[in-house]
């Protein structure tokens, strides 16, 4: 790999800036100053240092984000705040993107990466990667709804969903209305637009709060505050790669 490409990928600057810094003697390879920023280096074996600091090269990043409501799942937007805006500058040079999307008002687990192959495999319909959501549903969710979801419900556009697993966790009665709020978990294996909300609309109920808990084997870290992020642990990444292999 060209030295300037390696350093550029790691966010050290543009090719022009790196060329200028090389001529200034700020870049060392295996203990020797390198004036030619186009020099070929092996990121796995060569010791590259910039201004006395060792450069640890890596190609991909894998980020778990606890997405807050009010933020859109996009890399850029002229009007809205995006999930990329929640990341530090040190990660932006890797150009991560969200794997799939969560609605603007939905919170919970969102994976961001620059590994296009893994993202494609996680989103591929043929993989049937399960995703579990926790929701507050306005209406009395019943065993009949559980059975309907297990078969597949018909959405407003006529699409029949794949079988989904619905678990009723608890129910609360609203103090000012003759209405019930049901607390549920729903596991689906596809990702149609507003799918969870539309599935409950199909059985006459309304989702008023939605949070994604899992994507395949990856679970939202219960200790990760809303709006915060962390990089995946090695075991979490390995489980995702195994699930899509």
Q: What do you see in this structure?
A:
With 245 residues, the chain is α+β, with helices and mostly antiparallel strands. The chain has helices at 3-9, 15-23, 89-92, 116-123, 143-151, 195-201, 234-244, and strands at 27-29, 32-33, 48-50, 53-54, 62-67, 97-98, 107-113, 131-138, 165-173, 180-188, 206-215, 218-219, 229-231. The strands form 2 sheets. Strands 5, 6, 7, 8, 9, 10, 11, 12 and 13 form a 9-stranded mixed beta sheet that branches. It has a 4-stranded antiparallel beta sheet with strand order 2-1-3-4. The protein is elongated, with a radius of gyration of 23 Å. The chain starts with a helix and ends with a helix.
Strand content: 25-35%
How many strands, which pairing sense, and closed or not: the largest β-sheet? 9 strands, mixed
From the spread of the alpha carbons, the general shape counts as: elongated
Could you give the count of β-strands? Answer: 13
CA-based gyration radius? 23 Å
Low-confidence stretches: none
Number of helices: 7
Order of helices and strands: HHEEEEEHEEHEHEEHEEEH
Q: Quote the distance from N terminus to C terminus.
A: 28 Å
Helix fraction by DSSP (H/I, runs of at least 4) = 10-25%
């Amino acid at each position: 790999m060209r030295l300037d490409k390696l350093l550029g990928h790691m966010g050290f600057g543009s090719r022009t800036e790196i060329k200028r810094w090389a001529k200034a003697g700020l870049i060392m390879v295996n203990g020797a100053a390198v004036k030619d920023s186009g020099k070929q280096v092996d990121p796995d074996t060569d010791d590259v240092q910039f201004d006395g600091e060792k450069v640890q090269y890596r190609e991909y990043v894998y980020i778990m984000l606890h997405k807050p409501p009010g933020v859109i799942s996009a890399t850029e937007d002229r009007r809205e705040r995006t999930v990329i805006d929640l990341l530090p500058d040190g990660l932006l040079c890797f150009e991560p993107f969200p794997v799939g999307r969560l609605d603007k008002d939905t919170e919970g687990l969102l994976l961001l990466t620059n590994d296009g192959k893994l993202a494609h495999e996680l989103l591929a319909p043929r993989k049937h990667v399960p995703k579990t959501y926790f929701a507050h549903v306005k209406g009395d969710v019943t065993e009949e709804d559980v059975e309907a979801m297990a078969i597949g419900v018909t959405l407003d556009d006529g699409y029949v969903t794949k079988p989904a697993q619905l678990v009723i966790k608890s129910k609360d009665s609203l103090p000012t209305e003759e209405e019930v709020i049901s607390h549920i978990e729903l596991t689906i294996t596809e990702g149609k637009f507003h799918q969870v909300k539309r599935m409950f609309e199909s059985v006459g109920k309304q989702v008023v709060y939605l949070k994604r808990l899992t994507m395949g084997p990856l679970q939202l870290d219960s200790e990760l505050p809303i709006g915060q992020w962390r990089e995946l642990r090695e075991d979490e990444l390995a489980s995702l790669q195994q699930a899509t292999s």
